[in-house]
Amino acid sequence: MEKLVNNTPADKDINKEEEPRSITTANGSTYTYLNNGKTQRYKKATETLQEPQDLLVFIPPWDKIAEKAKVMYPDIFVGIENEIQFEQLILAYNQKGSGKTIRPSSNGQEVNSSAEIERDDLVFLNFIDKITKVVDFTLPTSRKPKMNYSTFDTRKYTGEDGNVFREKHIGSKITSIEY
Question: 36, 57, 96, 98: which has the highest count of C-beta atoms within 10 A?
Answer without folding.
Answer: 57
